[in-house]
Design goal:
Blueprint (H helix, E strand, L loop, with lengths): L1 H12 L16 H9 L2 H19 L3 H8 L8 H28 L2 H19 L19 H4 L2 H4 L1 H20 L2 H26 L8 E7 L4 H4 L5 H16 L5 E3 L13 H14 L3 E9 L5 E10 L2 E7 L13 H4 L20 E2 L6 E5 L6 H9 L4 E6 L9 H6 L2 H8 L2 E6 L4 E4 L5 E5 L5 E7 L7 H5 L2 H18 L5
Parallel strand pairs: 1-2, 2-3, 7-8, 8-9
Antiparallel strand pairs: 1-12, 3-4, 4-5, 6-7, 9-10, 10-11
Length: 495
């Protein structure tokens, strides 16, 4: 049993970048569903936890690079924090399996399978919000390249795609545990849902694309993480970024975007660099969107991870990252476990921003999410509600080297594009930078550690999608259905 579930969990992990065996995601959740239906709730909790833990261990294996290179933790122990995170995330799969088993025990396996997509989405949503949230590895993200499938994200976000995937897995599981009549009914329902999903997707993709009205350029300086804050390399880092900016300016873009913390200095406090970049913007006649650390003088100084909108008039706008990375940009419960700050060089202590600032342009209203923020759909929605017509993600994934991590990070942004029918511009220090159409299609991208520029004529967001207007309504509905099913099963059956 353990071997079968481990192989299935491995298969699910391989559905994600960079292996991208996305087809297996339609099959490999079925084994944990079958186990949950034939074992009791307690056994299902354990087997589900095993499945989830193995899945996240394989999916998040790239974190090993970060701990091995940038921490003081001895090599054999670098897997300890990854294992702890995987075990924590695995609990949600275990809870899902236990709930499924309990419904089957109290009512029927058919009801359990019918409710399973709702329970899975509910578990994903809770994992994405509880204790700060960690939505990485949501099932739907495995399909980021399947454009006809992901178009339903404009209705219910990534969770709608997860729902369809789980429904197909549930129908397959039903073939092993239900009577042929009920199994056949399940297959027909899953086929109908899949058909509706693809029908909607092809219909949306068949619409004439909106013409591009704004040309946005991205620079990818490809600065290794050890060099980013090396004072002896600061002039070289700035020279690379400005040289790439001049190259990008030759394509006559309406905006040039730099990655997260691309400057080796604090822009607002370095008047020489600020004057030079202001002059560069004036010479190119293009505004610059620049990632930089911001320093507010005090005792101690307050540091923020910021995006600056800069024109020939200097700084005209600033956004401070709101959703910081736990154990990267702040220490949760620092009064208790603050000692871990000295274990790794990637741990800092930053101040969060307080509001979603939309840069009014020109060339157009822009929403900027910095690194980790872009994996939270409800945060991106705040910028759209504020009037953003293009979403920009600036990130520094150099911490993860040439691993799968940057590719998995990229896979989430086609969903942000589809959710709001907005173009997404992604500027990554070492990659993967990308320009993404409102359909979720990755129009252009720069591979890892390739120093270059790229630009594309992109359409502006028009109107609102269902997701833009109502946000996570689909996940809330799944929570309600799952809770109602569990509550109904808690009541004793009538004689």
């Amino acid at each position: 049993m353990a071997g079968l579930l481990s192989v299935a969990a491995l298969g699910l992990a391989l559905a994600f970048p960079r292996t991208d065996w996305d087809g297996v995601a339609w099959l490999v959740v079925a084994p944990v569903l079958v186990v949950a239906l034939v074992r009791g709730p307690r056994a299902a909790l354990g087997w589900g936890w095993l499945y989830g833990t193995v899945f996240f261990l394989v999916l998040l294996r790239w974190l090993g690079f970060t701990f091995q290179i940038y921490s003081e933790i001895p090599w054999p122990l670098t897997w300890a924090p990854i294992a702890a995170l995987a075990a924590y995330c695995g609990l949600y799969v275990g809870a899902f399996a236990a709930a499924l088993a309990w419904i089957a025990l109290r009512r029927s396996a058919a009801l359990a399978l019918a409710v399973s997509p709702f329970l899975w989405v509910a578990a994903e949503w809770v994992r994405g919000h509880l204790l700060g949230g960690f939505p990485w590895g949501a099932l739907g993200y495995s399909q980021y390249q399947r454009l006809p499938v992901i178009q339903i994200a404009e209705l219910g976000g990534v969770h709608a795609v997860s729902f369809v995937l789980l429904a197909v897995n549930a129908a397959l599981a039903g073939c092993l545990v239900l009577s042929w009549r009920r199994a056949g009914a399940g297959l027909l329902l899953a086929a109908g849902l899949m058909g509706a999903t693809l029908g909607f997707g092809y219909a949306r993709l068949g619409e004439p694309p909106r013409p591009g009205t704004v040309r946005i350029a991205v620079i990818q300086p490809a600065i290794d993480q050890p060099l980013k804050w090396d004072p002896s390399h600061a002039a070289t880092t700035l020279g690379i970024a400005t040289s790439l900016t001049r190259r990008a300016g030759a394509e006559r873009p309406d905006l040039i975007v730099w990655p997260e913390t691309a400057l080796p200095t604090a822009l607002r406090r370095d008047q020489r660099v600020l004057a030079a970049l202001t002059e560069l913007s004036r010479a190119l006649r293009v505004p610059l969107l620049i990632g930089s650390i911001d320093v507010e003088v005090g005792t101690p100084p307050r540091l923020r991870n910021s995006a600056f909108f800069l024109t020939d008039r200097g700084i005209v706008g600033r956004y401070d990252k709101m959703h910081l990375v736990p154990f990267g940009e702040f220490i949760p419960l620092s009064g208790v476990i603050g000692f871990v700050r000295g274990w790794a060089e990637f741990i800092s202590e930053l101040e969060p921003g307080s509001r979603a600032v939309v840069f009014q342009g020109p060339p157009t209203p822009l929403g900027v999410v910095i690194c980790y923020e872009g994996i939270f759909p409800d945060l991106v929605r705040e910028f759209v509600k504020g009037g953003a017509r293009v979403i920009v993600n600036m990130t520094n994934d150099a911490w993860f080297g040439r691993t799968d991590g940057p590719w998995q990070h990229l896979a989430m942004y086609p969903f942000r594009a589809v959710e709001h029918r907005t173009a997404v511009v992604r500027a990554a220090n070492t990659g993967v930078s990308a320009l993404i159409a409102p359909s979720g299609q990755i129009l252009r991208r720069l591979t890892l550690y390739h120093r270059d520029v790229m630009s594309e004529l992109l359409p502006l967001r028009e109107g609102s999608t269902l997701y833009s207007r109502f946000g996570e309504w689909f996940a809330y509905g799944a929570l309600a259905v799952g809770a109602a099913a569990l509550a109904a099963c808690a009541r004793p059956r009538r004689a």
